[in-house]
Amino acid sequence: MDMWPESIGQNIALKPPSAILKEQAALLGNKTKNIVTAEVKNRGESGLGSFSYNFNLVAPAYGYRYKLFQVWYGLEYYPIHFTVEEEIEKVLSEHLSALPIPTQPAHREVKHPVAKSEEEFLEILGKIFSAEKTIRIINALIAESEA
Amino acid sequence: MAVFLFWNLNNKPLQETVGCLAARHEVDVLMFAECAIEPSILLNTLNQSQDNISQYYYARSEGCEKIKIFTRFTDQFIQRIYEEDRLTIRHLKIPELTDILIAVIHFSSKLHWCNDSQSFECVELARTIKEAEEEVGHSRTVLIGDFNMNPFESGVVSANGLHAVMSRYAAKKKTRVVNRREYPFFYNPMWSLFGDMSPGPPGTYYFSKSVQKVFFWNMFDQVLIRPDLLDLFSNEELKILDSDGNKSLLSSRGVPDAKVVSDHLPILFKLKL
To answer: Residue B270 pLDDT more than 80?
Structure first.
């Protein structure tokens, strides 16, 4: 007898954040004629969430990868926590939130960008992709690959 | 013999001192954190007294702006494999010599990151290094830099962190299994340079504060070596430098001269590649 409810696998409304990242990664390749691509690398379970992914820029011509950011999230997908480098983090100041790990009183509270919904997730991705440093790196990788 | 030097320059214009160190020790690979000197200015100083054969080159990076590398060969021999803003992993591949991976790190400071955050980040760093090793097909790796952690801290020692141990004998086992998971070792020779019995200064970074627990000397700048490279490394070939040959890098109190030079001391090591 099958004791599992019919609702399993039905009405999955939310798109997994990893799928959104993979869509965006594919779009970069289209934009650069695959001279610079992006990859979403599964980091497995991290100490801070059930799922963790790195978003890397890739220059296939010379086998180079650059980690643009990392996300981690739990089974419910949201909130999604980001680790982004300092220069790019500056454009995400309104999304900063404290990390869910103990912080020693002597240290400044560690804050990272957090997306509480799919809408915020897309908004943060847009800001990271449009950041001056991101564009600078992609353009440098294109120039280097074509040299 | 390939000669490597790492130094956190504390954003000071130390090109003359770097030039002295490079010439005195015939350094092949210079690696810097907190380097505010324009590469062209540093190259100008480095190449002032060099003949054409041993000219220095800037091994540039697209995204990792926290680390700067200069070499006595063009950057085709030290190709970038993977980078983050605080990490660069290079494949050093000089003809006729054993190729190695060099990972250079400038970890986030304790001023901004708590110990837990640093430890979590070490887990990520360990994974990233392992992935780069899988990509090049060997684990002849050196990890060097300003870790902003001491060799005894969790992130450096833990199996799922950097797994860097003080004993060559322990590291030579190559891996260790914990809870059915296998973790590769690093050997951390910096342990042998701690304290007054070491041949040089007792650490690389000095910090004093009127609190209950303070170490005074810290070993934030470290070089970690994979077991597969241990036969090419001799502990005598690792030094913490306290002079550039002409002037001391220490203040009159015998600690790193943060006002005039840098709050960190450089580390120098050699590998028989």
So the answer is: yes
